[in-house]
Fold this sequence. Notes:
The radius of gyration is 22 Å and the shape is globular. About 45% of the residues are buried. It has helices at about 25-35, 100-115, 230-240, 290-305, 320-335, 340-350, 355-360, 365-375, 380-395, and strands at about 1-5, 10-20, 40-45, 55-60, 75, 75-80, 85-90, 95-100, 120, 125-130, 135-140, 145-150, 165-175, 185-190, 200-210, 215-220, 250-260, 275. The chain is about 30% helix and about 30% strand. By secondary structure, it is of the alpha/beta class. The protein has 9 helices and 18 strands. The longest helix has 20 residues, at about 380-395.
Amino acid sequence: MWQRYRMDSPPVDVDLALVGGGGAASLVLAALARHRVRDVRIAVVDPVHRRGQDRTWAFWGQPGNDLDELLSASWSRVEVVTPDTQHALDLTPLRYAMLRSGPIYERAAAAERRLGVTRIVAAAGSVDDDGERVLVRTVEGRPLLRAGWLLDSRPRPPHRPGRTNWLQHFRGWWLRADRPVFDPARAVLMDFRTPQPARGVSFGYVLPVDSRYALVEYTEFSPHLLTGAAYDAALAGYRDLLGLDPARLTVAEVENGVIPMTDGPFVARPTPRVVRLGTAGGATRPSTGFTFSAMHRQAEQVARAVAAGRPPVPASAYPDRHRWMDAVALRALNGGLVDGPEFFGRLFERNPASRVLRFLDGDTTVAEDLAVMRSTRLRPMVTATVADAAGRLRDRLAPSRHPAWTVPPPVIDSESPNVDAPGH
């Protein structure tokens, strides 16, 4: 049921409300329908009805789940390339997968119909939680909705700035070739042969859908964004490094993004009946920017809880020890204590690929974590660990000393040649 908010509309009363209709909320809706949730009044509040291909998610996991039929492509073999080495990795029993947003939004729309969801086309403003019900107001302050529980996936900065605040920022070209040039059985996960920034890490990657169509992307882990021209130049350079002839390629679509990489805390449950999802709820892994697997995992937990009549509160996206290791790794990279390409290259060189990927997903045991830690260089990581401990102590003594920090929007201006479809 659709409801466009009017100034004279009374507030809607529901059991469960989702504020924000992007990837996190879409996964929750699909999971609720899959678990055949009944007799629960549900509303979605979002000023935009999400549809189409506005983003691409890449993630790893075992085949045989609810996402299989939605995937654009998947690979059991990937490559990690450094200036000195090329690692061909067998991910078995895992696979690396690519999922575009369109199928997720379509599945969520079908779930809304089955669940009888009320969709309120309006921008949510403040949220007031009295411990029994949550009142959502419009940005102008008028009552919009009351709910027993609120799942909020709107983007927001961390509760406080971190000791290290980096960004994963990227631009990707969907390249269509006039002849077979890509290997659809092999993805390039990280290619560190790109020119490295003075402060940060850069890499390219290639995700082929078939022999003539692939997403080729340039990514940086660094404190600041580039200009549109700089992203295009970096992508053109990586395309040339791959030996692709620009005369035989068309840029069909352009994707841009910015993801926080920070040890600042994201509070997943700010009040008793408000639960944050997605990046706002801590689903983004600080050391890599990967988010989708945690969102999917937490959506399943929420749906299971609702189906069983329990509060829709998922588990923490990652173990506390992993957040600490991420903080140390970010400090080491930020301080120039480790070389980024060597740091990531050693992880894959000295560990089974499945262990590294499960580690990055927060799914390894303590023994496996220690094995991953031993694959890094000892002295710089000890230095970063000591510095992190000192930073934590200073934060306790002076908690407000960090300047305000927010995640900037992506740079979307592009001078990519031969674009034949709108950018995203």
